[in-house]
Amino acid sequence: MIWNSLDYKIIDMHTHMGPEYPLYYPDYDVDDIVKFLDEANVEFIISSPCEDLFRCDSRREVIMDAMMRYPKRIKGYYGVNPKSEVCVDDMLKAFTNNPGYTGIKLLPDYHRTALTDSAYEPFLEFANHHHMLVLSHTWGLSMHNETYDSADITAIILDKYPNIRFIMGHSIQGQIDEAIALANYYPNAYLDLCDTGRINGVIEKMTKKAGASKVVFGTDLPMQSTWYVFGAVMHARISNNERRLILRDNAIRILSEVYRPDC
After folding, report:
1. Torsions phi, psi of 101, nearest 5?
2. How many angstroms separate the CA atoms of 168 and 189, rounded?
């Protein structure tokens, strides 16, 4: 198979784990996912609970158990839900107790709270002060015809918090050209192939206009298969060096730059 020809392993920076109401995934638990990672030549993933999308609390035990059992294969995002009682001190405790946590995850459109809302401010200020990794959904025009994480709102965050490493989850899918412009302009902004990588020609456009060093590999596993997005990268009209940046090297570089609060 084509991935067997690579002399390096893939790193997936946008995945999920556990059940999701009301959808069915046959291989959503950690053992099944790790088996699949072996088959798909993936070294490790960074993951968050599927149920973070809809619950007011977080099923963090799903990720904490996975990180404990497979520390070299599963890393985690700490989900911040503005509808819950979570605070920065809770996050710090979680990072201290779970060395697999690499950053924080925000879902403004699902939680119907703009990325610029004051509820996120303590976490973003802390992340900015400590040069942390932040993955946030960015959808442009959101599900309810509202703009919780559109390009203009994302630009405000990038201006205000220049020290975070900010992955634009789904690359502002409703405003991809604007997302590419943001990645090109802001040193701390990164494009994410999760779901968006399937769009014909988008990987070439991202690579040409923002540079391959600003694109990270994400799949939404188990919602979408690693092979699906991997195939889009391998068949994009880009160089092998650019493919390696997207599939692995950008993740290594970004993770080497970010700070873990317990360090």
Report:
1. -65, 135
2. 7
User: Binning pLDDT at 50, 70 and 90, where does residue 21 land?
Assistant: low
d(CA 113, CA 83): 9
The two structure tokens encoding residue 222: 């188990």
What count of other Cβ atoms lies within 10 Å of the Cβ of residue 122?
Answer: 14
Question: For the chain, which domains are there?
Answer: 9-257 (3.20.20.140)
Give the global pTM. 0.94
Confidence of residue 86 (pLDDT cuts 50, 70, 90): confident
Strand partners, 75: 46
CA–CA gap between residue 42 and residue 74 (Å, rounded): 11
φ, ψ at 249 (rounded to 5°) = -65, -35
Choose the weakest-confidence range: 18-32, 109-123, 225-239.
18-32
